[in-house]
Protein backbone atom coordinates (compact mmCIF):
# COMPACT_ATOMS: atom_id res chain seq x y z
CA UNK A 1 0.00 0.00 0.00
CA UNK A 2 2.87 2.39 0.73
CA UNK A 3 4.26 2.04 -2.79
CA UNK A 4 0.81 2.82 -4.18
CA UNK A 5 0.61 5.89 -1.97
CA UNK A 6 4.02 7.10 -3.15
CA UNK A 7 2.85 6.73 -6.75
CA UNK A 8 -0.35 8.54 -5.81
CA UNK A 9 1.70 11.43 -4.36
CA UNK A 10 3.56 11.66 -7.68
CA UNK A 11 0.23 11.69 -9.49
CA UNK A 12 -0.93 14.54 -7.24
CA UNK A 13 2.30 16.46 -7.94
CA UNK A 14 1.76 16.07 -11.67
CA UNK A 15 -1.89 17.05 -11.39
CA UNK A 16 -0.98 20.14 -9.36
CA UNK A 17 1.36 21.29 -12.14
CA UNK A 18 -1.37 20.71 -14.71
CA UNK A 19 -3.88 22.72 -12.68
CA UNK A 20 -1.38 25.56 -12.21
CA UNK A 21 -0.75 25.56 -15.97
CA UNK A 22 -4.33 26.55 -16.71
CA UNK A 23 -3.57 30.10 -15.57
CA UNK A 24 -1.55 30.53 -18.77
CA UNK A 25 -4.39 29.61 -21.12
CA UNK A 26 -5.69 32.74 -22.79
CA UNK A 27 -6.37 31.90 -26.43
CA UNK A 28 -10.14 31.76 -26.96
CA UNK A 29 -9.67 30.29 -30.42
CA UNK A 30 -8.50 27.08 -28.72
CA UNK A 31 -11.58 26.77 -26.51
CA UNK A 32 -12.49 23.29 -27.77
CA UNK A 33 -9.07 21.80 -27.03
CA UNK A 34 -8.86 23.54 -23.68
CA UNK A 35 -12.36 22.38 -22.72
CA UNK A 36 -11.35 18.80 -23.55
CA UNK A 37 -8.30 19.22 -21.30
CA UNK A 38 -10.57 20.59 -18.57
CA UNK A 39 -12.80 17.53 -18.78
CA UNK A 40 -9.73 15.31 -18.53
CA UNK A 41 -8.45 17.16 -15.46
CA UNK A 42 -11.90 17.06 -13.85
CA UNK A 43 -11.97 13.30 -14.36
CA UNK A 44 -8.45 12.90 -12.95
CA UNK A 45 -9.39 15.00 -9.91
CA UNK A 46 -12.48 12.85 -9.37
CA UNK A 47 -10.41 9.65 -9.61
CA UNK A 48 -7.83 11.03 -7.16
CA UNK A 49 -10.54 11.93 -4.66
CA UNK A 50 -11.87 8.38 -4.84
CA UNK A 51 -8.40 6.90 -4.52
CA UNK A 52 -7.62 9.11 -1.50
CA UNK A 53 -10.83 7.86 0.14
CA UNK A 54 -9.82 4.28 -0.50
CA UNK A 55 -6.41 4.90 1.04
CA UNK A 56 -8.04 6.51 4.06
CA UNK A 57 -10.39 3.58 4.54
CA UNK A 58 -7.58 1.05 4.23
CA UNK A 59 -5.41 2.95 6.70
CA UNK A 60 -8.30 3.15 9.14
CA UNK A 61 -9.02 -0.57 8.87
CA UNK A 62 -5.44 -1.55 9.63
CA UNK A 63 -5.04 1.07 12.37
CA UNK A 64 -2.49 3.24 10.54
CA UNK A 65 -2.38 7.00 10.79
CA UNK A 66 -4.23 8.43 7.82
CA UNK A 67 -2.24 10.51 5.36
CA UNK A 68 -3.34 14.06 4.73
CA UNK A 69 -4.58 14.60 1.19
CA UNK A 70 -6.10 18.02 1.86
CA UNK A 71 -4.10 19.51 -1.00
CA UNK A 72 -6.42 17.60 -3.31
CA UNK A 73 -9.42 19.62 -2.08
CA UNK A 74 -7.39 22.81 -2.51
CA UNK A 75 -6.53 21.76 -6.07
CA UNK A 76 -10.22 21.19 -6.83
CA UNK A 77 -11.11 24.60 -5.44
CA UNK A 78 -8.31 26.30 -7.39
CA UNK A 79 -9.28 24.54 -10.61
CA UNK A 80 -13.02 25.22 -10.44
CA UNK A 81 -12.88 28.75 -11.94
CA UNK A 82 -10.81 27.50 -14.89
CA UNK A 83 -13.15 24.57 -15.38
CA UNK A 84 -16.20 26.81 -15.29
CA UNK A 85 -14.62 29.35 -17.65
CA UNK A 86 -13.60 26.96 -20.38
CA UNK A 87 -16.61 24.65 -20.23
CA UNK A 88 -18.94 27.66 -20.32
CA UNK A 89 -16.97 29.17 -23.21
CA UNK A 90 -17.38 25.96 -25.17
CA UNK A 91 -21.10 25.77 -24.37
CA UNK A 92 -21.59 29.37 -25.45
CA UNK A 93 -19.73 28.97 -28.75
CA UNK A 94 -21.52 25.76 -29.67
CA UNK A 95 -24.95 27.11 -28.79
CA UNK A 96 -24.27 30.45 -30.46
CA UNK A 97 -23.36 28.69 -33.68
CA UNK A 98 -26.60 26.68 -33.55
CA UNK A 99 -28.63 29.82 -32.79
CA UNK A 100 -27.15 31.90 -35.60
CA UNK A 101 -26.65 29.24 -38.28
CA UNK A 102 -29.25 26.60 -37.49
CA UNK A 103 -32.76 26.42 -38.91
CA UNK A 104 -35.10 29.05 -37.48
CA UNK A 105 -37.77 26.43 -36.78
CA UNK A 106 -35.42 24.50 -34.48
CA UNK A 107 -34.70 27.44 -32.19
CA UNK A 108 -36.04 27.10 -28.70
CA UNK A 109 -36.56 30.36 -26.88
CA UNK A 110 -36.59 28.56 -23.55
CA UNK A 111 -33.31 26.76 -24.24
CA UNK A 112 -31.71 29.96 -25.55
CA UNK A 113 -32.83 31.93 -22.50
CA UNK A 114 -31.72 29.20 -20.08
CA UNK A 115 -28.31 28.83 -21.74
CA UNK A 116 -27.77 32.59 -21.81
CA UNK A 117 -28.71 32.97 -18.14
CA UNK A 118 -26.56 30.04 -17.03
CA UNK A 119 -23.52 31.17 -19.05
CA UNK A 120 -23.90 34.73 -17.82
CA UNK A 121 -24.19 33.60 -14.20
CA UNK A 122 -21.17 31.29 -14.47
CA UNK A 123 -18.95 33.86 -16.17
CA UNK A 124 -19.86 36.47 -13.57
CA UNK A 125 -18.87 34.01 -10.81
CA UNK A 126 -15.56 33.28 -12.56
CA UNK A 127 -14.84 36.99 -12.90
CA UNK A 128 -15.05 37.47 -9.13
Task: Describe the secondary structure blueprint for this structure.
Layout: H1 2-21, H2 31-62, H3 70-101, H4 109-127
Descriptive labels:
mainly alpha, 128 residues, elongated, 80% helix
Folded structure, characterized:
- The chain is mainly α and 128 residues long.
- The chain has one domain.
- The protein is 80% helix and 0% strand.
- The chain is elongated.
- The termini are far apart.
- 10% of the residues are buried.
Main β-sheet description: none
Element order, helices and strands?
HHHH
Number of strands: 0
Question: Gap between N and C termini, in Å?
Answer: 41 Å
Structural class: mainly alpha
Number of helices: 4
Shape: elongated
Amount of beta strand: under 5%
Q: Portion of residues in helices? A: over 70%
pLDDT averaged over residues: 93
Integer-rounded radius of gyration: 19 Å
| Domains, number | 1
Low-confidence stretches: none
Write a short abstract of this structure.
This protein has 128 residues and is mainly alpha-helical. The chain has helices at residues 2-21, 31-62, 70-101, 109-127. The longest helix is centred in the middle third of the chain and has 32 residues, at 31-62.
Amino acid sequence: MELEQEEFEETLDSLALTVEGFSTYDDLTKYMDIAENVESVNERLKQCVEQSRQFGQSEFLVGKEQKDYSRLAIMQKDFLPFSNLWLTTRTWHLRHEAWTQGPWEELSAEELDETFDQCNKTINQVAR
